[in-house]
Amino acid sequence: MHSVTLNNGVEMPIIGFGVYQIPAEETEQAVTDALATGYRLLDTAASYGNEEAVGRAIKNSGVPREDLFVTTKLYVQDAPAEENTKRAFETSLNKLGLDYLDLYLMHQPYGDVYGQWRAMEALNREGLAKAIGVANFYPDRLLDLIINNEIAPAVNQIETHPFFQRTGYQKLMREQGVQLQAWGGFAQGKNGLFTNPVLSEIGKKYGKSVGQVVLRWAVQRGVASIPKSVRPERMAENLDVFDLALTDDEMASIATLDTGATLFFDHHDLEIVKWLSARRLDG
């Protein structure tokens, strides 16, 4: 499996398997199929409600723990944030049936971010989380977090796809040693992504699907991806992107698709801030 090296030396597969929006009752089979297909990075979150199913699939897979890279995410915690973060981490670890995580991400840039991050730093120092990072942090929030803490995030998982390419932000993250990991890499099919003429024409040239072109484009940019599917044939297709290389002209053509705007939600939108800040997980 092709990988990227994080800022603390940890190796992370550049393509993993995400379980966002997979119902809990379907997750175990989906993860089982993904592991059989060859995926070794699994990405879940406390807020997805399917950590236990991911854990069952891992336990029954026969894949050695050291061969896996498992990520989950901390949701916004009430005060005292440090104490509650540790409790939330232990809950996720127990649901997954693991002794440690490879990557623990702060899911949203709200609440007592610094209290949460201090607790995550402690988990990292104790070896319980091999790497720590964030998700959905815009440049100002990310840079502020880096400047005012001892450990810089290893990863920032953000919306990234051909219509919202985050090129300038990726440059800043590289300068700070933060790996960009894409969520929504296929834009959930919005803007007609799977029939886009630019992407389709490139796919025809190489005998690849639009999804494979998008994943190859991300790989060549050094962007990690976590595509989701419940179909084994699509899972295999999403891993089959390492036998081609897009030309500079093709990369430039894809660059013209960038609108510079989210297709989902803006973390600077005040209504989104209110909703995400107030939302809590049951228990």
Question: How would you describe this protein?
Answer:
Strand 6 (103-106), helix 4 (113-125) and strand 7 (132-135) form a beta-alpha-beta unit. This protein has eleven helices and ten strands. The mean pLDDT is 97. The protein has 283 residues and is of the alpha/beta class.
Number of separate domains: 1
User: Helicity level, as a percent range?
Assistant: 40-55%
Shape: globular
Strand portion, in percent? 5-15%
CATH topology: TIM Barrel
Summarize the structure.
With 283 residues, the protein is an alpha/beta fold. Helix content is 42%, strand content 13%.
Task: Supply database-style keywords.
eight-stranded parallel β-sheet, globular, 11 helices, 10 strands, TIM Barrel, 283 residues, single chain, two-stranded antiparallel sheet, alpha/beta
Q: How is the topology of this model organized?
A:
Elements lengths: L2 E3 L5 E3 L3 E2 L5 H14 L3 E3 L7 H11 L7 E6 L6 H16 L6 E4 L6 H13 L6 E4 L3 H9 L7 E5 L7 H10 L2 E5 L13 H10 L3 H12 L2 E2 L6 H8 L8 H8 L14 H9 L5
Parallel strand pairs: 3-4, 4-5, 5-6, 6-7, 7-8, 8-9, 9-10
Antiparallel strand pairs: 1-2
